Every structure is written in C-alpha cells, then in structure tokens.
Amino acid sequence: MPCRNNIIHRRALFLLALWLAPTLVQAHTGSSGMNGWADGFNHPLHGWDHLLAMLAVGIWAAQLRGRTIWQLPLAFVGVMSLGGLAGVMGLSVPGAETMILFSVLVFGVLIVRKIRFRATVSLFIVGFFAFFHGYAHGQEMPASAGLVSFALGFMLATLLLHGAGILTARLVIFMAACFLGSSVHAREKDNAAVEANEAVIEAESKTRKKESVELDEIVVTERADSQIGIADSASQGNVGQAQLQYRPITRPAEVLETVPGLIATQHSGEGKANQYFLRGFNLDHGTDFLTQIEGVPVNQLSHSHGQGWTDTNFLIPELIETLEYKKGNYYAENGDFASTGSANIHYVRDLPRQLLKFTGGSFDYYRGLAAGSQKLGGGHLLYAGETVHNNGPWGVGNDYLKFNGLLRYSREATDRGWSLTGMATKADWRSTDQIARRAVDQGMIGRFGAIDPTDGGHSQRYSVTGEWHRRDDRSETRLMAYGIYSTLNLFSNFTFFLDNNEVNNPQGCRGLPSSPGEKMDPAIFNTCGDQFGQPDDRWTTGFKGSHTWFHKWGAIDSETTLGLQLRNDNIQNGLTKTHAQNQYAVTRQDTLWVTSLSPYAENKTQWNRWLRTSTGVRFDGFRFDVSQSNISQNTGERYDGLVSPKLGVVLGPWMETEFYLNGGLGYHSNDARGINTRIDPASGTAVDRASPLVRTYGAEIGLRSTWLKGLQSTLALWWLDLDSELVFVGDAGTTEASRPSRRYGLEFANYYSPADWITFDADVSVSRARFRDHEPGIGNHIPNSIETVIAAGTTLHNIHGGFFGGPRLRYFGPRSLDESGGRRSEATLLVSALLGYEVTQNLSFQAEVFNLLNRKDDGITYFYPSRLPGESLAGVDDFHFHPVEPISFRLGFTAKF
User: Fold this and answer.
1) Taking Cα atoms as reference points, which of 826, 822, 836 lies closest to residue 894?
2) Which of 162, 191, 215 finishes a domain?
3) Closest listed residue to residue 749, CA positions, set 340, 258, 97
4) Does 650 reside within a domain?
5) Where does 348-455 show beta strands of DSSP type E?
6) Which residue intervals define the domain TonB-dependent receptor-like beta-barrel in the entry (predicted)?
7) Suppose 277 and one of 81, 351, 422, 786 were both cysteines; which one would form an S-S bond, judging by CB atoms 3.0 to 4.6 Å apart?
8) Tens-place pLDDT, residues 518-550
C-alpha cells in the first residue's frame, strides 16, 4: 500500500532520470540572448540534468524531514554560488559534466532506496554536487549578463525546483493516504485517511531513528586516523595498508602518491627510477624529497643520472604497514633531500596468514608474489619473493623482468625489541625514452615508438638493516645501522643525432636518411646516435641513533630528543658515449667519497590545554672527496656544514580543530663531482666549482579538523625559498647554473568515511614557482614546475558479501617548460579502478583497469633541442614527451592459508 506506492513513484522518477541521461549532453545550450537574472533563471530549467537534480534534492530533503527539509536546499544554493564564481573566473575543473550526470544517479538511488545519513553527511553530499552544478552555470554565463543578476536568477530557479521536489514528496504521501482511505466505509473515510497518514509518518520516523542509531556507531579508519593532539603540522600524516590494498597501482612508486600533492610518473623504461613532482618542484628522480624504508634513506647522492636518485622498484606494497609523510623542512630528524618533505615506509613484522598472489594482464604483464611469516625462536621470521614481467605498449617492448626478495627476523618484548632485515632486487629492461613530437607528426614513428630502439638498463640492490629499540615511562631509545650495495647501468638517448651525426662522425653515420620523416634502419644505432651510458656502483653505510627523555617542567609535560646520524657513500660512476649499449668513449669517470655527520636536538612541550610547541636544531657537516677522475683537475676534497633551526607552534584543539604555524631552515646538497669540477668534461673549458650546500627557507600556516564526524580535513598555505636551483646534470657530466627561486602554494586534503564500508578522499594542491632574480629577455618561470594536482577516489570494501575496490582520479595540470613561460605542457588526467570479490577469507579475485577513459595524454613533457635525420645540424627546439599507456587490464587472485 502507501509504502509500495511510494516505492513505485520513486522508482518511476529514477527510471525517468536514466531514460533522459542520453540527452544530457544537450543540457547546456548557452545563452538564449536574454540578459541578467532572466538568463540565469532559465538556465537550470533548460537542462534535464539540472532540473532532475534540483527536484531530487527537494524530494530527498522531504524524506529526511526535520531541519534538513530547509538545510539541504540552502546548503545546495550556497555552495552552488561558489561553484558559479569558479566557473566565471575560468578555473579549470576537470570532469564537471560527468559529476553533474553522476549527481542525478546518486540522488535517484538515495530517493529510491530511502537512504538516510546524519545531517552533516547529507549536507556534505549535497554541497559536493552543488559545486559542479554552479560551475556549469558560471561557465555558461553570457558575456552580456551581469554576474550578480545572473547568479540571483539561477539561485531563485534552483530554490523553486527544490520547493517543487518537496511538494512532490508531500503529495505522494497524501495520495497514498487517500488510496488507503477509499477501501474503507464512507463514514470512516476521513479518520482512516488521517490514521493512514499518521501510520506512514510514524513508520518513516521509526525507520529513520533506527538507521540514525546505526550510523552513530561508524568508526573512522585508515588515513583519517585523527592526528589531533599528535601532528606537528597540517601537512603531516599516515597512510596504512587498509588504504593501499584497495588502490589500483601500476608500479611501486605510486605508493608515494598517497602523499597529498605528489605525482610519480615515468619518462623511460619501467626499471628506471620514476620522475616525481611535489609543491611546485620537478623533483627529477628524487631530489629534495627524502624517501626512506624503515628509516634507511633510498635517495642516492652524487648519482650518475642525477642527485637524489630514488629507485623504489624494490618495494612490495602488500608488506607496507604504514607510510608516514611530513612535508616541509620543519623537522629536526630530517636533513638532506628533505626541503619539500619526506616519506618513511614501514614494513610489517609478521603476517597473519601465508600469502600467494598472481596477476596477469595487458602487454604481457604478470606478477607473482609469495609471502608469509613463521614463529621462530621467540620471534617472527617474515619472508617474501616477487617476480614481475612487463612489455608495455611500446613498439620496442620493455621486456622488463624483476626479481625481488625480503627476509626479516624480529623479536618483541614488553619494553624492547629488535629486527634484522635483508632485501635483494635485480632488474633488466629495454626502454622507450621521451620522443620528439615532430617525429610522430611526420609519421617517422608511432605514438608508442622509439627513435633509438637500443636504450635500456639493468640494476641491482642489496641491503641489510639492523634495528634495536627500547621504551619505558621515562625514556625511549632507538638505534639503527644499515649497509647497501647497488649498481646501475643506464643507457639513454634524448637528443638522437644532435651531437653524433654525419658531420661529426661521417663514417659511422653514413646510413642516416637524408630527409626528415624518412624511416630509419635500427642497425644505424649500432654505429651512430647520441646514446650515452651512466654506470653507477656504490656502497652506502649509515647509522642512526636517538634518545628521548619524557620529563616535566613543573606541571608541564615535555620531551627532549638528542639524535645522531652518520652516512658514508663510496661511489664509482661515470658518463660514457655508447652505440647500442657498446661503449666507445668516456666523457668522465670518477671515484667519490661522500661522508656526512648530523647531530640534532628537539624539544616538544605541551604548555597547556591549547598550546604546544616543537623546537629543534640540526647540524649537517659534509665531506666531498673526488679521489680519482679521468680529468685530474676535477679531483679534490671539500668540506661544508650548516646549522638549521626548526620551530612549530600548535594552537587548539577547539571544536576538534587545531591550527599550526611552522618554519625552518634546510638545505639542498649538490653533487660531489660538481663541487670539485674545474674543467667541463664535454667542452674542456674552465668552470667555477659549485657550492656544496645551498640554503632553503620554509614556512607554513595550516589547520586540521575532525569536527564533522568521519571527515578529516587539512589546509596548508606554504612557502619555500632556495638560494639557488643549482644542480649537477648527469646527462652532461657538469653543473647546470641556475638562480635563486621562490615557491608558494595551497594544499587542501580531505579523507571522509561516512560508513565503515566506504571512504572518499579528495586532495587539491596548487602552487606557483618563479626565479627571484630578474634576467632581461629570459623570463622567471622555473621549467617543469607543476602548478596543479588533483587526486580523488572512492574505496568500497566488505559490501554485498565481499566486493571491494573503487575508482581513482589523478590530474596534474599544464606547466611551463621554459623560463619564458611561453612553452607549456598539456594537462594529464587519468582514471583507474579496481574491483574485487572475496569468495572466502582465504580466496579473493580482483580486476584492475588503468586509463579507463583511454586518454592520449603525456606522462611527462619536456622542451629542448634535438636532431632527427636530415635536419639542421643545430637541431630543432621541440616538445619531447613520453605518453601515458592506453587503457589496459589486469586480473588476479590472492590465496591465503
């Protein structure tokens, strides 16, 4: 009866929305020539998507009853006005039309299923979709219309549509009551209608109360673990395995993309370290972002390919317990490479069950993983083995083959514990590096083709780490020592035939085509081309120790930490000239020793209920020694050191909200070869030696709030200055001069769990990067400094008997590719998704799809000169890009026993 009639009416409305969906592309037809408020008033009425969504909000508000009947419409109109302002200002919001369509479907489901949330949750859902509706209105405002009058028009129309929705819901209830009354004797008609109406209202009220009680028991988990009272800044947080396991991941480095605002992409073969972007920095392969595994630094200094080389291909995502991130240079325990921030990855010490996993997919991809743990001698033995193969979509397949292993033994007592960990990784690959866009436009190669088909590399990494810790009520002590042996042989060609051509090497290059666009014989690269090799062989050893005292200053709680860090790198690397990976000349070859000693002190004090501080100071002393070089003038030994103070102030919490003020000094270390180079190895001319350590200055204002139940939001306004962008370019074997710079930006990160089976995350980062000095005729843009990053996703788990997964969106916007700012890259937008089903606790299956929209974006873009056959010897300035992979699929299973 009435309930069934309600269901029939609501299902009809939902089906109507679906039937009208194909027409939505015609919803926004632009101006009709009318001016002012009339134009704005008509806009929502001419689009079926707007019309249905507005009615649905009203119907849902009526279902929820109480104060929400007016709160939801007002919240929608309020947030919609902000979206309209964003549209008028021309702000780029990707996927707005898709989100408008999605809102119709979401509101339809909420109405049909009579889904009810707490008021704050309902307001969030309505406000989220309202922004996109308002954005569409603002984008399509006619040039002749006034902003205020146009906004008043579409706000008034929206409120009227909400009211129509509320009225529709009321009429449905009234008609149901009348229908029931018609089956009763005429003398009882009025009373029966009233009683039926009251029965409907009472039933809905009971249902709502029951569901509200259930929602009150929601437990927030994963990244939304409250950092209130713990974190020292707004840009500090943790990511747990619960978030990682339901995330589609194409390569291990994407684990770092859980750090809000960080992008990990690739411009070469899969075995090479990834390219990273964060806070307006092109971090290259890791410079200025410190990555650690159990406190052991992954960044390699004075590396043959570039300072800070961060190869994370040895990571096994399933073994990660937590990832701690701290952005900014405000933390005393972090020194080298940490100007933009740091991430410390911790592995589990044992697994509840043995794990066997296999995944196969597009482009000859397969991955096998076996992992488990056993109790042994009072402790736990953790072990894991992994193999990966991937060809990719490239014309010259990657043929990437990796073997990865881990062995850890750990023991824990009541107040102390220790562990010993060994890791081993070996990988080989061929690569398609970035290619010139004109080579594709001329038909010389396809989008996934290679200009030099002989690029590639192979690498190895072996490490041993020992760790001991103790904690009681008065103090905590941590000691750790590590040793790493790693090798890399990398072969690349970015300029093709600019340096080694038919003039500079006439005998080797006779087979070159004489005109642009002509096909090339791959055999040419056996004797020609600009390929270079970058061998790197090193031993890295280090020690970290810290002791913390828990004490009081009167009634004030405080803790003081003293720490010491040592690191030594013994390196042999070089830059060679090669054809098809066969060496024929040496540009430079060096033996290096780099040693650092870094004591630090930090105090954290809780002065009262609403004020706590963190103060620290750190000294970093370095010895840079080039003991051998193929150019004797480039040997030498230099020392340098810096003192870096840190400060953090936390105010609150008030209403589950804290406010942060942070500042600190840090540094950017330079390559030991550039520090001691007096003769340019390529040109033979005299050059000035680079500064060993370059000062960085950082500050941040932020807030963190968990006031809305289930939602954790952080907002940070940050600033970072560098005295110089000076870097050593491994591809050229010399230091690239640069200028002082300034970067600042805004980060807004959100993680929301309205129920224990669903989570939403949405992070937005915007930044501006400029050189601080003035160079007439050159410009002050910092090339490849990322400006906008948006990452968002939904995670579902344990629903309908075992389904899990969800979609993810990643967007990084256009950026300047040269100092003038005139050459810019295109934006990159990728949508991926994972869907899995847990058959039993011991067996699950999952499917992943990457680049779901099959977009033809660039993974990375550069602008520089290169030369193709038949072109001018001076080369051609052009865009060089590495494309994102096309849509691809992976299927797999996980067995536990």
Assistant:
1) 836
2) 215
3) 258
4) yes
5) 355-361, 365-376, 379-390, 400-412, 416-430, 435-436
6) 407-852
7) 786
8) 677 777 888 889 999 999 999 999 999 999 999
Classified as helix, coil or strand, 553 is: strand
Contacting residues for 187 by C-beta, under 8 A, at least 6 apart? none
**Positive or negative torsion for Cα 219, 223, 228, 229:** positive
Specify burial of residue 789 (Cβ count, 10 A radius: 0-12, 13-18, 19+): buried
Mean pLDDT, to the nearest integer, of 660-682? 92
Adjacent-strand bridge partners of 589:
574
In contact, 512 and 543? CB cutoff 8 Å: no
Cα(101)–Cα(94) distance, integer angstroms: 14
Please tell me the predicted confidence (pLDDT) of residue 156: 80
Does the bond joining 653 to the residue before it have cis omega, within 30 degrees of 0? yes
pLDDT reported for residue 187: 38
Last residue of a domain, one of 166, 192, 215: 215
78: containing domain: 2-215
For residue 729, name the pLDDT band (cuts at 50, 70, 90).
Answer: low
How much is the CA Rg of the chain, to the nearest whole Å?
31
Helix (H) or strand (E) holding 122: helix 119-139
DSSP string for 136-191:
HHHHT--TTS-HHHHHHHHHHHHHHHHHHHHHHHHHHHHHHHHHHHTTS-GGGHHH
Q: Which residues of 394-426 are buried (b: 16+ CB within 10 A; e: fewer)?
A: bebbbbbbbebbbebbbeeeeeebbbebebbbb
Q: State how far the Cα of 219 lies from the Cα of 307, in Å rounded to an integer.
A: 44
Q: For residue 856, how many other CB atoms are within 10 A of its CB?
A: 11
Inside any domain, residue 354:
no
Q: In whole angstroms, what is the distance from residue 841 CA to residue 49 CA?
A: 42
Among candidates 434, 438, 346, which has minimal Cα distance to 394?
A: 434
Establish if 238 belongs to a structural domain.
Answer: no
264 C-beta neighbours (distance < 10 Å), count: 23
Amino acid identity of residue 207, one-letter, is T
CATH of the domain at 746: 2.40.170.20
Could you tell me the CA-to-CA distances from 744 to 257, 328, 348, 715, 811 in Å, in that order? 20, 11, 36, 14, 20
Q: Which of 53, 54, 211, 228 is nearest to 121 (CA)?
A: 211
Measured distance CA(629)–CA(673) in Å, rounded: 9
Count how many domains the chain has: 2
* Backbone dihedral angles phi then psi of residue 614, each to the nearest 5 degrees: -135, 115
Residue 5 pLDDT > 60: no
Q: Which of 895, 755, 697 is nearest to 116 (CA)?
A: 755
